[in-house]
Amino acid sequence: MKITNQMEISFLSIPENESFARVAVSAFAVQLNPTLDVLADIKTAVSEAVTNAIVHGYCDCMGMVKIEAILKDNGMLRLVVSDEGCGIENVEEAMQPFFTSQPEKERSGMGFSVMQTFMDQVEVMSEPGKGTRVTMEKKILAG
Predict the structure, then answer these.
(1) What is the pTM of this model?
(2) Out of 18, 22, 48, 84, which one is annotated catalytic?
(3) Which of 1, 2, 58, 99 gives 72 a disulfide partner, CB atoms 3.0 to 4.6 angstroms apart?
């Protein structure tokens, strides 16, 4: 598949930037003329991935969150949300519904499940002490 467009953004891991990430990715994705429902799915998945990076990746410290977005000529949107935070000890466990590393903060543990629900494919790569990389793909059929 040939890449038709690509963008990359980085921002501080502060909660205020979660909405910025949603808007930036959705503005990029409109090139494929998605339906409003598909666009809402993408925004929700981005919101969850970015929130995970901010809340869990950097815990109580500051760092950078990076988003790469790639449009392919087959109508596929590929998103990569990454951080250089604390990483995930056990990715398989972390991807289970209701698992949270911060139960004392009343986290629902549904972030990865939500991403999997709204995107066609979700892959998580992580290394403790080095960060996490969430890759998501969504086939966009023009609306």
Answers:
(1) 0.89
(2) 48
(3) 1
A 10 A CB-CB count for 30 gives: 11
Dihedral sign computed on CA atoms, order 111, 18, 42, 59: negative
Residues whose CB is less than 8 angstroms from the CB of residue 137 and which lie 6 or more positions away in sequence, other chains included? 76, 77, 78, 79, 119, 120, 121
Among the listed residues 118, 113, 116, 112, the one whose alpha carbon sits nearest the alpha carbon of residue 140: 118
Residue 107 bears catalytic tag: yes
Mean pLDDT by 10 residues, the chain (143 residues): 93 96 97 94 96 89 96 95 92 67 58 89 95 96 67
The active-site residue, picked from 52, 78, 84, 133, is: 52
